[in-house]
Amino acid sequence: MDLExxxxxxxxxxxxxxxxxxxxxxxxxxxxxxxxxxATAEFGTGVLEDADAIVGQIRGYLDACGPTQHLLGSxxxxxxxxxxxxxxxxxxxxxxxxxxxRSDLTFSTLGDYHDDWRRIDGVWRLTHRHKHSHAVLGTFxxxxxxxx
Length: 148
Fold this sequence. Notes:
Number of domains: 1
Order of helices and strands: HHEEHEEEE
Number of strands: 6
Radius of gyration: 16 Å
Structural class: alpha+beta
CATH topology: Nuclear Transport Factor 2, Chain: A
């Protein structure tokens, strides 16, 4: 494996972590900066067709709950031989806590992110995410509106 490949793998792993941390910090501009404008995603609710739709769906959940933590592990990155495209897989364990009257509630998933990447102007950007959920724990009521 050459140095360029190792650097690309490290840059993509860092982008994965930045995206997870941005979701937990509700830093939506960072999420949008990592996604290409025409990025697509599948989280189990149908295909999302662009970066705004992806971040909009994530916000629809996370803006309604309390603190969250998206932990990533067992990250595998494969760089295309041409060097400007890549795929990655990363385990994700995410925990969502309720807020206010729902602060005693939790919702967690165990899953696997399958991502496609493209290097644009020297920066690795996410072009497609498919989250495979393997287990769900807790209650979806964590995401209910405050007046529910």
